[in-house]
Every structure is written in C-alpha cells, then in structure tokens.
Amino acid sequence: ERLDDRSRLAVWHEAYERHYRARLLDALQAQAKRRPSEPQAQPRFLLFTCIDDRNESIRRHFEEIAREHATYGVAGFFNLAIAYQGIDDPSTFPLCPVVLTPQHKVAEEPLSAEAPRAEARRKRLQSLTHASVGLEKASRSLLWGVIVTAFAGLVAALPMLAAVFMPWIAGRVRKKVASWVVPAPKTRLHGARSQVDESASIAVGFTTEEKVERVASLLENVGLTAGFARVIALLGHDSSSANNPHVAAYSCGACGGRSGGPNARLFAQMANRPEVRLALKSRGIVVPDGTWFVGGEHDTAADTIRLFDLEEAPIDLVPELEVLQAMLDQALARNAHERCRKFASASSSLSLDAARRHVEARSYDLSQARPELGHATNASCIVGRRSSSRGLFLDRRAFLVSYDPRSDEDGQVLERILLAVVPVCAGINLEYFFSSTDNPKLGAGTKLPHNVTGLFGVMNGASSDLRTGLPLQMVEVHEPLRLVLVVEAAPAVIRAVVERQPSLKQLFDNAWVHLAALHPDSGEVSTFSAARGFEPWTSPPSRLPEVDRSVDWYRGHDGILSPAFVAPDKALLEEVGRGV
Questions:
Q1: N or C, which terminus of the chain has less Cβ within 10 Å?
Q2: pTM (2 decimals)?
Q3: E runs forming strands in 472-555
Q4: Bridge partners of 48?
C-alpha cells in the first residue's frame, strides 16, 4: 500500500518475469542432472537450423521421430556475409546481419545445359513486365482508363475471390500456372574464385582459403569436429505471405530480413568441395568421404522445406536423401499441428495433414492478417550443447544456440558467439516487449489500415505519421518479458567475456537481459546481477512433467505452457519408423 502505481507495476512485472525464469531454470537444472554421460550413438542425420525461436519446435519434433537424429542451431546466415543476386534479381542485396557489410558477391547462375531455358524465362518475364507497365499507363489515360480498368477488374476478380475464400486451392493453382508460364531452370551458385584482388571493392566468390575458414569456424563454434552423419542438412528460413507489408519481420533476422536459403545452399556447396575437406584435416576436422552436406530453405509460415542441388549428391546417397525428406515431412506435419493450437481459426481436432494444409493456406490467403505469429512469446536464449535442452518442451519460446564449452577453456569461441547472438536476440525480444507493452504508441497498431509509404514505412490510411514498432497482429499473444540468457559455461568464463565487451556488459548490468550460467560439469545454475555478480540459483525441488510426445503436453491447450520433458518410449519410436 505504501507503493505508488508506478512502483507497484514494477514489482508485479518483476514477479511476472521471475515466474517464467524460475520454471525455465528449474527445467534446465533438472535436465542437466538427468543428462546421460555416455557417448551418444552415431547420428543418422544431422540438421542445422537458424537459432530462431520458431525452430525450437521443428528441432524437437525431428529429434522425437528418432533418437539417432541430432540438431544444431547457428545464426541463419551460416557464417557467410554475402551480397547475393538470384537468377531473377536485377542487382545484389545483402544476406547477413545488418551490422555487417558483405565483402563477397555470390550469384545464382543457370547450369550450362539450362542456358536456353534461362534465356527464354528472362524474355518472358521481361514481356510480362512490359505488359504490366503498359496496362498501368493505359489505366491512367483519359481515353482508355475506363475500358482497361473495367476489363482488368473482371479478369482479376475471380483469382482475388479465390485467394480469399479458397486460399489453399488458389495458392496451389497459382504456383502451377507460374511454373508453366515461366519455368525455372536448374541453377548453381557461383561462389568460387582463384585469388584475392585487393583493388576490388567487393570480391566475386570465395577463395579456397576463405571457404575453409568459414566452414571450419562454424563447425568449431558448435563443437562438431567428429561424429559426422552421412547426410547433414542445413536449413535457412524464410516466410511467405500475401498482402503483407511487414513480411521482412517474419523472415531471417540474421539475413537482414530476407531468406537464409542461399547461405545454407552456399555453405553446403563449400563443405562438399574435396579441397576444402582436405584443408579441414589440418585443423583437426576430419569429414568422412561418404558425408554429404545439403542446403535447404524452411518456409516458417507454410511449413514447407525445399532442399537444393539434390541431383549433385552421390548416387548411393539418393535413398538416404529420400528418407531424410520423409523424416522432415513428418517433423513439418507435427510442427504445423503444434502451431495450429494458437490460431483461433484452426480447429482443435485437426489431423496432422489438415494442420499442414491449414498453415499453408494462411500463407496464400490475401485477407489473412496473421499468416504466422512470428517471434511472439519469445522469452529466452540458451547457449550450449544440445544435451542441455534436448527433450525439453520449450513451447517455441527459446532461441537455441549451439556451443560446446568443453573445447573452449578460455572463452574465445563463446565471446564470438555472444557478440553475434546477444544483440540480435535481445533486439528481437525488446522489439516485441515494447510493441506489446504499449502497442498504439510503441508499436504500429492494427495492420489492417496500413498503407506502404515511399517503400520505407507504413502509415494509417492516406494520412498519418509513419508507424514504428510491430503491428498488433504480431504481438497480441505475446508476454512482455525481458530475455533470459542461459549460457552453458563456468560463471568465471562468462564474467571474463562480459568484462571484455562493453556492449554485453551494458545489456547485463542494466538488466535489459537476465543472465544465468549453467555449469557444464555440475549442472548447477547461477544467476547474475550487477550488484552481486553470480549467485547460486535456489528454488524448492519440483518434478518436471514427463510425456511421450509433444502433442501429449499441448493437446487441449491454446495458451503458453510451462516446460516438460518429452521422452518417447521404444515402442513409440518403432511405430514412427514404420510410418505410423
């Protein structure tokens, strides 16, 4: 009663955040104590995804399907800051965090045998563009305006109505028609060069030494220097939607709000090069000759995955790649089903196939204000080995960053990782925090009346100030919590890294991010404050709920759930293996 309104709100909010923090830290501490000490079996498939919180669920489902699946989380540009030019792009654009400036240009080019098809595609696209411009000019003329507008309206009415009332069918038809009108040629990324040209402002491709450095650095950062699977898939991510001026906010933040697919494809191309494999051996990274990297792109709205350059894989790996695609399809169906529980328009009794169809239809729907929920409900970031979080149901709330503290005694690798991921994850978290705390002022309000202005912002209707922050439809289910960063490392190592980096120290000392340490040996958790440093985390003993599958925990719930341990039994895994 002695507190004023502002102080009382602060106390309630501290308790609100501590409630989530306690459940998360208790779960991680319990997981650390039950973590198996014996070495894991050789993985059948390794899956790399972006650290994005939306990938927490796809990784969990992929690992639920089979124990011999393993996953890693890395920044979605895959250590490749590039200026990229796709086959239909008029110029390059950066695929890297916005704080970086690309020094290498990479272009998508048709295969030599596909050159005629690529040229025909270019000419057809050019003709369609000219026709579109011509119709636009005619619609503004005094003589032809009424005729062209009426004719174009009649032609466009049916597809528009179909896109609103039958989005799944309309989207599939549109894709089929597009592939028939402008068929895409088979392509390859041009990312090689023989020597460094110091006079060039931007290099075209990478030298062998640069490829080795990029590949080795990423593998060393996650601690993958042995135990390679025969097939290693790297998935960049993007998000598809219709009529959405905020689409960049749904795409890959590590790629500047664009797709990470080209980066994943390029990394796989580099890692498959014989000269790169040979040079990696000198750094203690022995990639077996039978191992193959394949790049791909995950559409987080439609829950589809496209794998690149499959025709280049060794013939003996074709059956294994088919199994991988089937496993990914199972994980995608489960992922879509989990996502649907938070969509008001999705029935709670949807089957897996119906759930995939529902999320795909949302990405095609011209009238859909919520094609996906983006980073909504993000609340934590876990930096460490997958064993520290594998099997935990974290409800798509955690950024997951792979890091092995056992091979990084001085914290040099950890320092690189924290400098890269903490500003990004904290930035996303605070963006959602403020936009949901006061959406009319700090967010963008409802997106329904938004008009794109000058191709650099949105405003309400025809006249208003430019709107900042995120629209209401992206944050309406969000809990405004400051990020909880849990690092699997000794507190002394973390503290030394923070003291060397003022930007990190500012975030932690001023409590913009709550910092905690998970000791890699004892599994004990410590929490940090600027006044007291690291202190042991203590809480009443609690038992972590345990289920066989993720669906057993979230079924019947549309709100945010606390952590649980997912431990599929042997019989269930055998059923999955038979396709049940």
A1: N
A2: 0.91
A3: 483-488, 513-518, 525-529, 533-536, 546-547
A4: 72, 234
